[in-house]
Amino acid sequence: MISVAEAQNIILEHSTKGGTESIAFEICLNRMLAEGIYTDRDAPPFDRVAMDGIAIDSRQLLKQQSFFIEAIQAAGQEQKPLKNPENCIEVMTGAVLPYHTDCVIPYEKVTIQNGIAKLDSMAHKPFQNTHRKGIDAKKGDLLLPSGTWIQPGVKGILATTGNTQVKVVKLPKVMICSTGDELVPIESEPLPHQIRRSNVYMLQAALKELNVEAKTTHLPDDKAKLTSAIKQLLDEFDVLLFSGAVSKGKYDYLPVVFQELGLQIHIHGVKQKPGKPFLFGTKGTKCVFGFPGNPTSTLVCFHAYFKLWLNQYLGITLIPNYAYLTKDIVFKKPLTNHLLVKTSHDNGKTMANPIANSGSGDLVHLALANAFLSLPSEQDEFKKGELYPITYFHQNSF
Amino acid sequence: MISVAEAQNIILEHSTKGGTESIAFEICLNRMLAEGIYTDRDAPPFDRVAMDGIAIDSRQLLKQQSFFIEAIQAAGQEQKPLKNPENCIEVMTGAVLPYHTDCVIPYEKVTIQNGIAKLDSMAHKPFQNTHRKGIDAKKGDLLLPSGTWIQPGVKGILATTGNTQVKVVKLPKVMICSTGDELVPIESEPLPHQIRRSNVYMLQAALKELNVEAKTTHLPDDKAKLTSAIKQLLDEFDVLLFSGAVSKGKYDYLPVVFQELGLQIHIHGVKQKPGKPFLFGTKGTKCVFGFPGNPTSTLVCFHAYFKLWLNQYLGITLIPNYAYLTKDIVFKKPLTNHLLVKTSHDNGKTMANPIANSGSGDLVHLALANAFLSLPSEQDEFKKGELYPITYFHQNSF
């Protein structure tokens, strides 16, 4: 068996980068930009009024305190000129700064009576309360490099720059397969020895949080049927995720079926708990992840391995994250212990509070966790206050 | 003008709790559960085999080391009995523990030859490698209280317990309205004094990250048209979000239109930068949020005020979060300074790195930030290493 770090390196070696596609602006949120976005104009595109008030020629400040209002410059109107330098123009936020003016004085610092604006003080500077043309970016500047994650602010920039179509990294086509003859559909009343399918829905939800819409299917514990079903799924999908059937059981046919279908199995067994029987294989650019069938094993392996693969596919750079253990833990096996935790915050620090649970088959307590700490295999005792790597179960944690 | 804390209290006083609805299991991710979920059976529902191997009667351990394999108990099969206490049954993970057995010995600790399993050692304990009936929950136990956020693990529990329909808190119907005659559609080539609409798309994306699908519209800077459009929108939607037209400009008609339509304006003006002209009003259970039109003001007010309202509507308890400022900042105005930052992690601590920007109209640099620090108004100097409240622009940060 290999270590967690070795397994993660193997995954990274065998993951491919996704292709690109052009999609509509409307649906580009939480996708990875695959082109550089350049401004088609200066940002802002004109000297922009940044406060409601009056615009004057600041050189007049030494000479006069009262200004006749000769016009109004509203947002969305063509630039007007100040005809008489001794006058002013009322200006609105978002408007073009009128020609021959260079100073905006907000209403709060002006008294207006009978069409005359009187300044409360003369302490004003050229270009105050203006947002100057090109100060944020010049026409032709690279605003968003390829490899930018499209979050709401980025979507705002794509709108401003008129990108009705956006080139992004394609999403992989993913099928989630449950195995195990003990599983019955949610709507069923299970017999005493049966349980309802749940891992596939948990994985589907975890994928949806990563913006990947995946399908689910169930495959029987029958070698011939498994083989023909998987052969077909490999044609249609980029990635197959399996829950169950990768361990040492009599009906754990997946490893042998994968081999017969010509898949190269790069990982089968990792020095970790939970998730020891974890399997990863590839055939060309297609790949299969075999997660052990217990809920915690499945979800932990999904985040420790599949998410790593997906990040590389999309071009997301993972920044390792750490949290403080809040309780002494003893774990004597020479395995990496993926410890379920619920995080909290304490004065800007991330605290990892272990979730008591009955093992990897325990879905009830898994749902209370929002992350896991990976406690290194070479240690037996882990003390309160020590810092360990953390992996979150939710999106936006990369 | 009121303080940020006063404004937030007013929002909380005037926010209502959302009603409930029953939705299909398939679409319940990232919704707020509005009913308690009880187990319909013990969890696990039977003494479950937790390792592939053999099951024996542990009392035999003192007497014998080799066990004849009399049957196989696969997952999904009805419980079998061990007929002869001196024999064993091969068992698979997920199977029912056979009747008259109480101890699972994994394949790793057994040598099987000619149908006889020989133990490597006698050091085994009753009920080892089993997941005992009801250990995680007893039939009738409350597994998920009302007010649980449906994340992937929770969805797994809803599946296990057979909830094909789920009672959740309704989502509010939200319309996002842009104002400002300088705005043109994304697909347009703007004239020199025009800019493309972007705030509405940024807000729509921010709402989508909170799982709320909102619509967008544009309203002209014309009082009569605004009045009739808003009257109609108030009938159809629970919440209207406005970007622009709430300040002191000549064409900032919203405050007066709201009053004429019978809305109570609870907030208009907050001691903060950006976002000073922020407005909040209600009419019955309907409410309007008037965000100042600059991109940063809009997004900051959305997160500081609308998200607070939404959390209360959905029943999410907000836990305040803090981060370490990484740079000295001087800000002398008696206003709360919502400082754009990009967070990073340093040994389990959240670090807030200020984003240089040219003010609230600067969309380019806003897109680089993932959060803002709220620096209190009663201070002028903020030192590197000090801890301040942080608000994230992304989901899953509550």
Helices, strands, pairings?
The structure is a homodimer of 398-residue chains.
Chain A: H1 4-13, E1 20-24, E2 37-38, E3 48-49, E4 53-56, E5 66-73, E6 87-91, E7 103-106, E8 110-113, E9 116-119, E10 130-131, E11 142-144, H2 152-160, E12 165-169, E13 174-179, E14 183-184, E15 195-196, H3 199-209, E16 215-219, H4 223-236, E17 239-243, H5 254-260, E18 264-268, E19 272-273, E20 279-283, E21 286-291, H6 295-314, E22 322-325, E23 329-330, E24 336-346, E25 349-354, H7 363-366, E26 371-375, E27 381-382, E28 387-392
Parallel strand pairs in A: 5-6, 13-16, 13-17, 14-15, 17-21, 19-24, 22-25
Antiparallel strand pairs in A: 1-12, 2-11, 3-10, 4-6, 4-7, 5-9, 8-9, 18-20, 20-21, 22-28, 23-27, 24-25, 24-26, 26-28
Helix pairs in contact in A: 1-6, 3-6, 4-5
EC number (chains A, B): 2.10.1.1
InterPro entries (chains A, B): MoaB/Mog-like_dom_sf, MoaB/Mog_dom, MoeA-like, MoeA_C_domain_IV, MoeA_C_domain_IV_sf, MoeA_linker/N, MoeA_linker/N_sf
Domain MoaB/Mog (chains A, B): 175-313
Protein architecture, described:
The structure is a homodimer of 398-residue chains. Chain A is α/β, with parallel strands linked by helices. Chain A is 19% helix and 31% strand. The first copy, chain A, folds into 4 domains: 4-19 and 171-314, Molybdenum Cofactor Biosythetic Enzyme, Chain A, CATH 3.40.980; 21-41 and 147-169, Molybdopterin biosynthesis moea protein, domain 2 (Alpha-Beta Complex), CATH 3.90.105.10; 48-131, Molybdopterin biosynthesis moea protein, domain 3 (Molybdopterin biosynthesis moeA protein, domain 3, Beta Complex), CATH 2.170.190.11; 322-392, MoeA, C-terminal, domain IV (Beta-clip). The first copy, chain A, has helices spanning 4-13, 152-160, 199-209, 223-236, 254-260, 295-314, 363-366; strands at 20-24, 37-38, 48-49, 53-56, 66-73, 87-91, 103-106, 110-113, 116-119, 130-131, 142-144, 165-169, 174-179, 183-184, 195-196, 215-219, 239-243, 264-268, 272-273, 279-283, 286-291, 322-325, 329-330, 336-346, 349-354, 371-375, 381-382, 387-392. The longest helix of chain A is centred in the C-terminal third of the chain and has 20 residues, at 295-314. The model of chain A has no long low-confidence stretch (mean pLDDT 94). At the A-B interface, helix 2, strand 15, helix 3, strand 22 and helix 7 of A face helix 2, strand 15, helix 3, strand 22 and helix 7 of B. Chains A, B: It catalyses: adenylyl-molybdopterin + molybdate = Mo-molybdopterin + AMP + H(+). Chains A, B: Catalyzes the insertion of molybdate into adenylated molybdopterin with the concomitant release of AMP.
